[in-house]
Amino acid sequence: MIRSALMNVMTAAALKAGRGLKRDFGEVENLQVSIKGPGDFVSAADKKSEKTLFEELSKARPGYGFVLEESGIVEGSDKSHVWYIDPLDGTTNFLHGLPIFAISIGLAREGQLVAGLVYNPATDDMFVAEKGQGAWGNSHRLRVAARRNMADALIGCGAPHIGKIKEHPRFQAEFAAVTAKVVNIRRLGAAAIDLCYVASGRYDGFWERGLQSWDMAAGVHIIREAGGYVTDADGGTDMLTKGSICAGNEFVQQHLLDLIRSA
Ligand code: IPD
Ligand code: CA
Ligand code: CA
């Protein structure tokens, strides 16, 4: 595990916000059968989680800036540090009672990612990484999978939702191209967790378009510290600004990138 002051701060904030999300997730099941559904309740849970993370991280590291999913950009007096926060990644899963959701916290220093944490309060899975200290999942060191053969590779992806109709044809073409070459495909619905599954070797690779910086910052850093390779869908390193990602070990990442670019 990583025993640093920074990781203690990040872990404490995630555990505190996670306690609230876990309680609220229990309530969601009761609201499932109401006509209105749990929509408003989930949106309140999301905002509450963000407020807790913002307060805890601001208290421990005054002046750092924030990129928050719900509240947007908060400029800090310390221009060299920025937190990227998704207070609830996997909202649709949470809403439907599926225990695949997470808090995601990434930290950049001088524009470079230096720390990441992804925590699923439903399963108590905690993934962390800090620059030069490796990636860890529940106190086990993480390494990306070693497979080189695409026919053996299990690949994760993200699919555009109903509102992103213009994105559907490209996704369908990429999905068809990848499906033809790999052992199978998974779509879990929480990008932050997907990226940690690449870092832990559960997936051999992952790709998605239409993401935001807060979905990816922590996971990208965790994959890199686990020895993995990450690019945007054009093969560059502008994942956080372009919103696309392709990840895996050195071999799978390159093959997967070739497949989606030629789709
Ligand atoms: C979403 C999840 C999902 C991905 C979407 C994201 P949210 O985040 O990560 O897996 O496919 O693009 O927006 O809305 O649940 O925080
Ligand atoms: Ca998200
Ligand atoms: Ca979210």
What ligands does this structure carry? D-MYO-inositol-1-phosphate, calcium ion
Summarize the biggest pleated sheet.
8 strands, mixed
Going by helix content, strand content and strand pairing, the class is alpha+beta
The overall pLDDT, averaged over residues, is 96
Q: In CATH's first tier, which class of the largest domain applies?
A: Alpha Beta
- Architecture of the largest domain, CATH level 2? 2-Layer Sandwich
Give the secondary structure arrangement, pairings included:
Layout: H1 5-31, H2 39-60, E1 64-68, E2 72-74, E3 78-89, H3 91-95, E4 102-109, E5 112-120, E6 125-130, E7 135-137, E8 140-141, E9 154-157, H4 168-179, E10 184-186, H5 191-199, E11 205-208, H6 213-225, E12 229-231, H7 239-242, E13 245-248, H8 250-262
Parallel strand pairs: 1-3, 9-10, 9-11
Antiparallel strand pairs: 1-2, 3-4, 4-5, 5-6, 6-7, 7-8, 11-13, 12-13
The structure holds D-MYO-inositol-1-phosphate and calcium ion (2 copies).
Your description of this structure?
The protein is α+β, with helices and mostly antiparallel strands. It has two domains: 5-141, 2-Layer Sandwich (Fructose-1,6-Bisphosphatase, Chain A, domain 1); 150-262, D-Maltodextrin-Binding Protein, domain 2, CATH 3.40.190.80. The protein has helices spanning 5-31, 39-60, 91-95, 168-179, 191-199, 213-225, 239-242, 250-262; strands spanning 64-68, 72-74, 78-89, 102-109, 112-120, 125-130, 135-137, 140-141, 154-157, 184-186, 205-208, 229-231, 245-248. Strands 2-1-3-4-5-6-7-8 form an eight-stranded mixed β-sheet, with helices on both faces. Helix 4 (168-179) links the parallel strand 9 (154-157) and strand 10. Helix 4 (168-179) crosses helix 8. The chain is globular, with a radius of gyration of 18 Å. The N and C termini lie far apart (40 Å). The model has no long low-confidence stretch (mean pLDDT 96). The chain binds D-MYO-inositol-1-phosphate (IPD) and calcium ion (2 copies). The site of one calcium ion has 4 residues, from strand 3. Residues 86, 89, 191, 215 line the site of one calcium ion.
